[in-house]
Amino acid sequence: MKYGYFDDKNMEYVITTPTTPLPWINYLGSDEFFSLISNTCGGYSFYKDAKLLRLTRYRYNNVPTDTGGKYYYIKDGDTVWNPGWQPTKTPLDSYECRHGLGYSRFHSSKNEIEASLLCFVPQKDSCEINKLTLTNKSNQAKELTLFSFVEWCLWNADDDMKNFQRNLSTGEVEIEGSVIYHKTEYRERRNHYAIFSVNSPIDGFDTSRDDFLGPYRGFDSPVAVESGKCTGSIASGWSPIASHEINITLAPGESREFIFLLGYIENPKEEKFTEPGIINKARAYDLIQRYQTSEQVDKALADLQEYWQKLLSRYQVHSANDKVNRMVNIWNQYQCMVTFNMSRSASYYESGIGRGMGFRDSCQDLLGFVHLIPERARERIIDIASTQFEDGSAYHQYQPLTKRGNSDIGSGFNDDPLWLIACTSAYVRETGDTSILTETVPFENDWDKAAPLMEHLKRSLNFTITHKGPHGLPLIGRADWNDCLNLNCFSEHPGESFQTYGPSEGPVAESVFIAGMFVKYGEEYAQLAELMGDHDEAARARSEVATMYNAVLNYGWDGEWFLRAYDAYGNKVGSKECEEGQIYIEPQGFCVLAGIGVKEGLAQKALKSVKEKLDTKYGIMILQPAYTRYHLELGEITSYPPGYKENAGIFCHNNPWVSIAETVVGNGNRAFEIYSKTCPAYVEEFSEIHRTEPYVYSQMIAGADAPRHGEAKNSWLTGTAAWTFVNISQYILGLRPTHSGLMIDPCVPEGFGDFCLERYYRGTNYHIQVKNPSNVQKGVKEVIVDGEVIEGNIIPIVDRKDVFVEVIMG
């Protein structure tokens, strides 16, 4: 069942009913100011950090769901309704929500009044613009009253929802004309405040939630709206809000436009104020003046759309498959940019309070957006590396505002260091910029402890080399990519950082998955060392890679598939010897994509086992059989019910690893089958089962053991976006950057047909036409560059604006 449709021409997803299975959201903002907005106008806004600088409140896990947002109440006689349906839920005569790239539009009508609401965050300004247009479609005049509404968050979202003994006494506001200022805590000289304004004279206002709503009422029935008049309340403590009242008379056929602006103002630190609580309004005035007219707003929206069109044009495919085209050209890249901005910090599943930026997460996300914004990818790599410890390990998470490691989560995830090599390698292959490797970067943000980035990468590599277990495989520490696989749970001190242990002391649980990572990224590190002229270091790295490769073959192979790990007692995990959890997806995908076992014929066996034991119609499960009881020696993974999350759920994140692995062995049919099972454009048809947004990837889908097999959770902020884009763009369509140029090596399903690729790479536009006259799955017979046949399948780097390439598969 569908709840909308793709509008590829306008690059929008059109939702045709407000009653979607779950709230379907969009992200507004691409720089420092961000908003989350649902298809019923729920959501919230923040500046830079969703925890520390949140402007508006949102209530997670609330009943009814999706409570809190930017609401516009339209009172037409005794009828009160909202353009986005919530919160009054008044039945509408028509409804449509269009989620676009960085903006959302709502079109609805009731009793011959049409409402059109446009919401977006303009480029370079810290505000959200809401342009509301009301049109009288009847043949008689209409008397309406419009009420706006936002509820202020007291900045620190965590403190806001817990510290009531203090917060209920701190709320402060100020009203000046049509501008409502939220200045709570400004008297502490924090030099920031928020505003909510409208470009129209107002007939009333409220800033106290209690007065606006009335006793024991919710957002669905505010007493001010019901009575048709705001109370003029001035919040003093308790819960401050901002609401404008505007009385409107519309002649038949007449339209009126109102521009509402929610803004964040931050004054320079050097500015001093003589009186606590007195705010400098000059910047607010300047901001408001930039968005007073429809012409100004329309120009800002056009600039935003041009930004996205230019950005996404860096990689485009034109094929006979519309679903592939729309995901590659629009939605997958768009989601990659959102994960760049948010990491795992703010979604409808991540509250924006606990996680901040993930070390591993941000490194993986970079793989999906480095081709779009390489200059900001460079900045992100420096940010990530600056949180690293001197021994090569790292805080698992850090806060985006402070760039400081999150001590609540700590470290000990032993895959983290290798991901830094992965993202740096991707950046250098994309840009050719080796200067980043000589950039001086601090450890733990302490400039007294700083070294070139290449030294950071060396310590990442050495951390794995010096932290091996009895089988010569990497120690897993607290966990690896699978955060819930806690194989050292026997420890008397489960909260300690396991990276402090040497190779022969403390917990000795080992990870075959990290071994696969080391083989892949150890080779990529060696290539970086060669670029820097350090051939001895490259040889050393490759020697260690060969040793690890052999350790996997000797101790990581279980006969038909790769083992997952050894626990702290030396017992196998992910083995046919296990009663439950006999096979895991991670090593089958990553070891094969790293090339382990390909020439030995083991890779094909592992992938066959995946298909036979882990595959479902909704994707590949993370393990089988599911765990039916708690295993202390395995940890949190066994705490979930069968079929959910790490206990035999379908983790969309690692399905691309298996798809890439299938391209490594040349199986385009199977690679594309895996790709399509989790691809949003393909799952749209059963949205009533899938439930999350049909235009973006989710982290997890319930596995075959779950009562709700096929139901998705945790949409938007997931490494699935980056890894799927790597899979489809670099391995299935086959265009991937190397240090010497663009390699073209497609691996497509039979019948996929010819296709064209447009790729911006190192200052040049590559126009590539791929022909497949023999309908092969893999193999490049000939590459013609600007009319000349070249040797091999790497398109050389040139200093020209445009390059035209013809590729013949065969």
Automatic annotation (TrEMBL):
Gene Ontology annotations of biological process type: carbohydrate metabolic process
Gene3D superfamilies, alphabetized: 1.50.10.10, Glycoside hydrolase, family 65, N-terminal domain, Maltose phosphorylase, domain 3, mpn423 like domain
Occurrences of domain Glycosyl hydrolase 94 supersandwich (ranges): 12-293
MF term (GO), any: carbohydrate binding
Residue ranges of domain Glycosyl hydrolase 94 catalytic in the record: 307-734
SUPFAM superfamilies in the record: Galactose mutarotase-like, Six-hairpin glycosidases
Highest taxon above the source species: Bacteria
Listed Pfam families: GH94_b-supersand, Glyco_hydro_94
Keywords: Glycosyltransferase, Transferase
Protein name: Glycosyl transferase
